[in-house]
Amino acid sequence: MTTNAAAFAAAQAVIPGGVDSPVRAFGSVGGTPRFMASAQGPYLTDVEGKRYVDLVCSWGPMLLGHQHPAVVEAVHRAVDAGLSFGTSVEGETRLAELIASRVPVERVRFVSTGTEATMTAIRLARGVTGRNLIVKFAGCYHGHSDGLLAAAGSGVATQALPGSAGVTEAAASETIVVDYNSPEALEAVFAEHGESIAAVITEAVPCNMGVVEPGDGFNRFLREITAKHGALLIWDEVLTGFRATATGGWGLFGEVEGWTPDIWCFGKVIGGGMPAAALGGSAEIMDHLAPLGPVYQAGTLSGNPVAMAAGHATLEHADEAVYARVAAASDAIREGLTSALTAAGVDHSIQRAGTLFSVAFGTSADGVKDYADAQGQQVFRHAPFFQSMLASGVYLPPSVFEAWFVSAAHDDAAVQQVLDALPAAAEAAAQA
Ligand code: PMP
Q: Sites of the modification N6-(pyridoxal phosphate)lysine (predicted)?
């Protein structure tokens, strides 16, 4: 049997940093990243045979838990029929129909990653409006395409600086970054650039600076101000889609308030753990995509039959009972978390939207409203907290700026293991 350390060393010799996605390297928590060998229900097992309650759930997709029998069976059937054909398959239509039965989209275009979904959504918005500028919020993550990496400093709306080496100033200059939860900042941007703004892109609920609750009416305000200025609202549900609620983040806002965004982005749950993502919207907007329209987009593995099968089986089985179980597990863990931190005397806020939540250390009772608040927290308390949980067999997101994910497979035993681990971790956070 190998060890995590040996697996990491071998990976570092052939893969930059030993990882294919930076957060996996445990940069902000220290220690040896775990290399997982298998997963079942709410558990992950690493290459050393150590088992963990999984509170990452592959960063969202595993809504039903690992190896749900219906998903495994659907995938096996798809694999037996062939891995990829480079043609259309009926599974694409079936998954598109299922998505359209849950949220008000008329057309769905499948891609392989959330990054592609938002990148294409932006190209589409520019193609539809004939405008160039994109507005995004500081601290929101929409994948790693050039224009969307611009995160820039906070403060009132600023022309963005490139958020990564290799992003040109030209690409960044077409992205305006605005503080989240600030209608005033957005109004100022529209007053100055209104005629050039193609779209505002937002996470339905920001979950990539920790969870940040949209202020009262903030999402509705985004819908109104974009419509007023002829810009589109790109609604990124890659993370929240079919997870925050049965109808995603939209279920918390648009569905109850009676509005819809223009372009939706999905990922994670709609692939059930396989690479699949999508954008969707009205026929009027979506039909601007090739081959019907002039906005080009394509993909060798787009709509891959195995991915479509995994996503369809996942979404089909995500019924009321699944969301009820996810909510119950999420509530129990959240309550345990806040009482353990309170008992240990650690100031904190639990940030939450639907079944999604995260913790911010050392923040005021008002919690985190924007990126500056998120960055201002006591980040140093997270590493010892994380390491204590890990030692107790709980695998948390290895960054404080991420949501915690639960699944319908998180039964009472798995939840209890998390609850039992929390007091010691809270003590470790207190002593940091
Ligand atoms: N949008 C959001 C809101 C996300 O959370 C993510 C990934 N966490 C993405 C887009 C990018 O998706 P992917 O990693 O599949 O490219």
A: 268
Instruction: Please tell me the chain's helix, strand, coil percentages from 3-state DSSP, rounded to the nearest 5.
Output: 45, 15, 40
Given a cut of 60, is residue 211 above it in pLDDT?
yes
In angstroms, the CA 207 to CA 235 distance is: 13
Reference 109, options 250, 247, 283; nearest CA is 283
| Fold of the CATH domain 69-317 | Aspartate Aminotransferase; domain 2 (3.40.640)
Closest ligand 1 atom number to CA of residue 277:
15
pLDDT at 288 exceeding the cut of 50: yes
Asked if pLDDT for residue 220 goes beyond 80, the answer is yes
Q: Atom 8 of ligand 1 has which residue's CA nearest to it?
A: 239
**Which of the residues 52, 146, 180, 268 is marked catalytic?**
268
Q: DSSP string of 400-411?
A: TTS-B---TT--
Residue range(s) in the chain whose domain bears CATH number 3.90.1150.10 = 4-65+320-404+413-431
pLDDT digits (tens, 9 = 90+) for 326-375: 999 999 999 999 999 999 999 999 999 889 999 999 987 678 999 999 98
Q: Is 395 an annotated catalytic residue?
A: no
Q: What is the ipTM of this complex?
A: 0.99
Residue 373 falls in the annotated catalytic set:
no
User: Ligand 1: which residue has its CA nearest to atom 5?
Assistant: 239
Tell which residue, 274, 308, 256, 259, has the closest CA to residue 108: 308
How does pLDDT run across 149-189, given as a tens digit for each residue? 875 332 323 444 567 888 888 888 899 999 999 999 999 99
Please give the distance, rounded to the nearest whole angstrom, from the Cα atom of residue 135 to the centre of ligand 1.
17
Phi–psi pair at 273, nearest 5 degrees: 110, -5
- Is the pLDDT at 229 greater than 90? The verdict is yes
CA of 428 to the centre of ligand 1 (A): 31
What confidence score (pLDDT) does residue 162 get? 62
